[in-house]
Request: fold
Amino acid sequence: MNILVKVALLTVKDSYYKDGFNEQKRELVRNLATSIKGEKVYFKSIDNRYEKVKEVLFELSVTRQADLILTSGGTGLSPKDLVPEATQDVMEKEVPGIPEKMRRVVSEYEPKACIFRGKAGINKESLIINLPSNPKLVEDCLESIKHVIPEAIKMLKSKK
Reply:
């Protein structure tokens, strides 16, 4: 079964947020969509507020607007960083291997990777993955997991 993966990027305006970084991350997601034979369908920047993040993740997944929902930012240790908690509250099932893989790859050169609190999981037929804020880390995280995304989406869409 060949499917066109609809990709969304939700950028959370955390303490690391910069407009230039936002455009870099959008380009990285466009490249990811191309490499997995998908299409970008949604880009949005929102404030780092738990309820807003939860609302957008829920809407994108329940209405099936996106098969792959990526968030960037809000995964640090600041009291305002609640993206993992919002993601957890939307997920039906957790997929812990994805953030484990991203942390392992990035920790080879970035010691602070161990404090990245990102989550990954599913809601309905959408795979949700939290990414860091830094575009270089986003790039390396996406590179480390891009080979599993098409298979994961295929499994989510399978009716068996």
